[in-house]
Amino acid sequence: MTPAITLQAVTPAQHGLFRALYGLYLHDLSEFTDFYQLGADGAWSPDYLPTWLAEDDPQVNPFLFWLDAQPVGLALVGARPFPHMRQDVDYRLSEFFILRHYRRCGVGRRAACALFDRLPGRWEMLQLPANTAATAFWKRVLTDYTGGQFDTLIIDGDPAQRFVSPGVAG
């Protein structure tokens, strides 16, 4: 039996875990951009996590992905009227990360679907132009998730996709 993926909104007690996973995510991104830099103190800069981990802000939604009891990844979702998204969408997938050990075995696909099921509405996501693997991943996931009913476009020079999630009743 395939272990279940659980999606959990980040609690204050999980901020340390989230910060650790986010550092790994930024390390992975450093292959594609020099925007984030590791400082002499071991901290990544710029650091947007204080904004994302602010309590009681409905525009920012940090999530952790778990495979059974093991943390395997994270997502940061902006909700309208989040300032870094078009106003004709409800959600923007700002960041998505799965630990390397769990890639290429369906964990990322299942995590993404759990996220989209949880938040029905109009979505957009962008990828760094140099991260062609991410763009290919999202096109495969969205082809399956939406039955091919998504738009591929360029937003501010970045490859992007838009689609509608019907969510899951329950």
Automatic annotation (TrEMBL):
<protein>
    <submittedName>
        <fullName>GNAT family N-acetyltransferase</fullName>
    </submittedName>
</protein>
<dbReference type="InterPro" id="IPR000182">
    <property type="entry name" value="GNAT_dom"/>
</dbReference>
<dbReference type="GO" id="GO:0016747">
    <property type="term" value="F:acyltransferase activity, transferring groups other than amino-acyl groups"/>
</dbReference>
<keyword id="KW-0808">Transferase</keyword>
<dbReference type="Pfam" id="PF00583">
    <property type="entry name" value="Acetyltransf_1"/>
</dbReference>
<feature type="domain" description="N-acetyltransferase">
    <location>
        <begin position="5"/>
        <end position="170"/>
    </location>
</feature>
<dbReference type="InterPro" id="IPR016181">
    <property type="entry name" value="Acyl_CoA_acyltransferase"/>
</dbReference>
